[in-house]
Amino acid sequence: MVGAVLALGACKPAEEAKAPPVRPVLYAVAKPIESVRFGPFAGTVEPRYQSQLGFQIGGRVVARDVTVGDIVKTGQRLAALDTVVPRFALTRAEADVTDARAQAENAAATEARTRRLMEGGNVTQAQLDGTVASRDTAQARLAQAQASLEKARDQIGYTELRADFDGVVTQRSAEVGQDLAAGQTVITVARPEVREAVVDIPDDLVGAMPKDGRFTVALQSAPAITAAGTVREVAPFADASTRTRRIRMSLDNPPPAFRLGATITVSLAQRIAPHFVLPDTAILSADGQDAVWIVNAAGDAVTRRPVEIAERRGAYVGLRSGLSPGDRVVVAGVHALAEGQTVRLADAPVAVPGTQGP
């Protein structure tokens, strides 16, 4: 009897040693990815055409008739300069023309008298040539004075800044009482009929941006309001401080809610061949074959299954075949598992980029 008990006691440790250990594992649920999303990126609605308007002459601003957001019509006055100095210049130019005309008439009369004296042999040819030259000089000075008068009259008109086209004021850069130089920006007017989406995209992502794709442009304040956008212009250089490049997109029939300055979100979803994305730690490579460990339906054992890798992207891999939707794939410690290994699943699956959500 004692021998039998000892024999049974010796068998029990041997049987316990043969029982496989239960390994806790992290897992991810295989979900097929059928589309990729580029973005979203934040941007604004801006006009394609806008002009920075300024006076053609310098002076002091005495009136500013519009402000940001105002709608202006062609020919409408936007601002005005003090006219005192230009009017003084006009008066002087008119006086110069009167003086030059008198000088020209006198030179012409002198030339005519000298020519008659030349016919009677009372003056020399040199004297006649001198009067002819004086007449030509006086006529040239008259033409110059008349041109200066036209310029002075034009400058009177330049004291009023008027809109060249129908548009909306997007920026004001001068105030009443400010002294301006010629050409300095006073008002910026945009054409609201042609609007486009403007976004800044990180420089390292521009290369992956589909140039011919139709982007979805949505208002941030009302995401249900959208429009289609296509890339029109890509900045050739990245901004030195933000390392982003400015992208301008043409909008296809944008709704009225797409007002200038509205904040938008730009993204692009593209259909691709279905594939699965997993962390690269889930791949077991042996004898030139890639495989993964699949947890059975009961969740207590694993089975090895060969897979085909389509691409590697950093810490993740894309699988072309070998998985089915809903498979639970072990993503850590794959080299410590064996066929039929008893496992214990973690409380929740590991999140994989592109597979979150319903």
Give keywords.
358 residues, alpha+beta, conserved putative lor/sdh protein from methanococcus maripaludis s2 fold, Elongation Factor Tu (Ef-tu), domain 3, OB fold (Dihydrolipoamide Acetyltransferase, E2P), 4 domains, 6-stranded antiparallel barrel, 5-stranded antiparallel beta sheet, 4 helices, 23 strands, 25% helix, rod-shaped
Give an overview in words.
With 358 residues, the protein is of the alpha+beta class. It folds into four domains: 20-33 and 274-345, conserved putative lor/sdh protein from methanococcus maripaludis s2 fold (Beta Barrel), CATH 2.40.420; 38-48 and 193-272, Efflux pump adaptor protein, beta barrel domain (Elongation Factor Tu (Ef-tu), domain 3, Beta Barrel); 56-81 and 160-190, OB fold (Dihydrolipoamide Acetyltransferase, E2P) (Beta Barrel); 84-157, Helix Hairpins (Orthogonal Bundle). Helices cover 25% and strands 38% of the residues. It contains four helices and 23 strands. It has helices at residues 2-18, 84-119, 125-157, 203-206, and strands at residues 23-25, 27-29, 33-47, 50-54, 59-64, 71-72, 77-81, 160-162, 167-172, 179-180, 185-190, 195-202, 215-219, 226-234, 244-252, 263-279, 284-286, 289-295, 302-306, 308-313, 316-321, 328-330, 343-345. It has a six-stranded antiparallel β-barrel with strand order 3-12-15-14-13-16. A hairpin with a 2-residue loop joins strand 17 and strand 18. Helix 2 packs antiparallel against helix 3 (125-157). The two termini are 65 Å apart. Mean pLDDT is 85; it is low at 1-8.
